[in-house]
Amino acid sequence: MSSCPLPSRISLNNHLFESGVSDELRHLINDIARAGKYVQNAIRTTDLGLAGSSNTFGEDQLKLDVLSNRIVKEELCESRLVCCFASEEESDQLQELVPDAPFTVVFDPLDGSSLVDSNLAIGSIFGIYSAQGKLLGKKPRDQMAAMYLVYGPRTILVYSAGKGTHAFYLNEVGEFTLLQKNLTMRDEVKTYAPGNLRAVVDTPAYRTMMDLWLDEGLTLRYSGGMVPDIHHMLIKGAGIFTNIGGSKYPKGKLRLLYECGPFAYLMEQAGGASSDGEKSILDIDIVDLDQRTPIIIGARGEVKRVAKILRS
Ligand code: AFP
């Protein structure tokens, strides 16, 4: 290595290698990153119309949802490292790719479909588990890695493989290059991102929380896209995001496996916290692929405060 010039930039692959991530996991994360490039291209070039199909939750699928899902599956297949996968856009079954391969991948290929036509930032979310043992019965704490891509004015990739949470940007030649290593959440709240606000109607404690944030003069930062809204907190190093049960979504709108589990992993690796109101999201037993959970995530002290108020 002594004859190597000092790198002028740190690529995702180099960062994974230097972080001691296993070769197989490094290859898989690189392959998922490649899928993100194709999804980004699809967002910019695909017809935004409806696909005429619906996902297992009965939600209409955009052509983009279906295409993004296909893109991710192609890359997972090509990696030859994925034993099974579960996609939010497909059947509520774990689907087999390569028996005996080391990883199980769960993903939401395009989160924020309702924002696509208004050209707001959206994202892809991934959780990576060992293929050893059944997924049902594990907890999100068993993830080996988690990552997301946020497609906005720039395409950003954030991952953790258990040694901190790190951000990369897609540069002009199509390489993910280190933007910020070791994202760190301070115990500070300047912004709040309250999801499923309709729940204030039948969850008085949520209205109490809203009133507190308003009285304390916090700044509202909520786009309706989980990926950019939580990315905002991780990059700023402060804030709170909630999506709790009530009204149309008794258990909260967001899914444990595809959305809350990966973000809880990334947030806690960055020194933040997560809760379902009782315990860390990472400690919830995975009992079925489409289970939903309330989520409180962000600065540690505020997560505790919100959970306490919502329990009251
Ligand atoms: P869509 O995928 O239907 O746009 O939903 C996005 C989402 O799953 C998540 O990204 C947001 O945080 C959440 O829903 C927004 O929920 P509310 O509209 O209830 O605030």
In short:
The chain is an alpha+beta fold and 312 residues long. The protein is built from eight helices and 15 strands.
Written description of the protein model:
This protein is α+β, with helices and mostly antiparallel strands and 312 residues long. It has helices at 12-18, 23-45, 63-79, 113-116, 204-215, 226-236, 256-269, 300-311, and strands at 50-54, 60-62, 82-87, 95-96, 103-111, 122-130, 145-151, 155-160, 165-170, 176-180, 191-195, 219-220, 240-243, 273-275, 295-298. The protein has 8 helices and 15 strands. An 8-stranded mixed β-sheet has the order 4-3-5-6-7-8-9-10, sandwiched between helices. The mean pLDDT is 95. The chain starts with 11 loop residues before the first helix and ends with a helix. The protein folds into 2 domains: 12-180, Fructose-1,6-Bisphosphatase, subunit A, domain 1 (Fructose-1,6-Bisphosphatase, Chain A, domain 1, 2-Layer Sandwich); 191-311, 3-Layer(aba) Sandwich (D-Maltodextrin-Binding Protein, domain 2), CATH 3.40.190. Helix 2 runs antiparallel to helix 3 (63-79) and helix 5 packs across helix 8. The site of 1,6-di-O-phosphono-alpha-D-fructofuranose has 13 residues, from helix 4.
List keywords for this structure.
312 residues, alpha+beta, Fructose-1,6-Bisphosphatase, Chain A, domain 1, D-Maltodextrin-Binding Protein, domain 2, 2 domains, 8-stranded mixed beta sheet, 5-stranded mixed beta sheet, globular, binds 1,6-di-O-phosphono-alpha-D-fructofuranose
